[in-house]
Write a structure and sequence with these properties.
By secondary structure, the chain is mainly beta. It has one domain: Thrombin, subunit H (Beta Barrel). Helix content is 5%, strand content 47%. It is built from one helix and five strands. Strands 1-4-3-2-5 form a five-stranded antiparallel beta sheet, with no helix packed on it. A hairpin with a 2-residue loop joins strand 2 and strand 3. The protein is elongated. The chain starts with a strand and ends in an 8-residue tail after the last strand. The mean pLDDT is 91.
Length: 83
């Protein structure tokens, strides 16, 4: 379940159906043999509305880690379907 800022009704939330969502986090990785912080992304898609308050359901390609629950995710404004 994802609560989008500024969306207050299920009618407003229907506009976001099919849009991409991204959860970004920093992880430790190796680059040229040195430890560095890298940004990793988990990409998902808004698949439906939930309830009457504008909450949407999102399905991610890889399940979100438990540390990601309650954190911010980015909603991409594509793909766009004309109304």
């Amino acid at each position: 379940m994802v609560k989008i800022e500024g969306v207050r009704s299920s009618e407003d939330a229907k506009w976001y159906l099919g849009k991409r969502v991204v959860y970004s986090y920093r992880a430790k990785g190796l680059k040229n043999g040195k430890k560095v912080n890298v940004t990793k992304n988990i990409i998902g898609k808004v698949i439906g509305t939930h309830g009457n308050t504008g909450t949407v359901r999102a399905k991610f390609n890889v399940n979100l880690p438990s540390q990601g629950l309650g954190h911010l995710i980015k909603v991409m404004m594509y793909p766009h379907r004309p109304s």
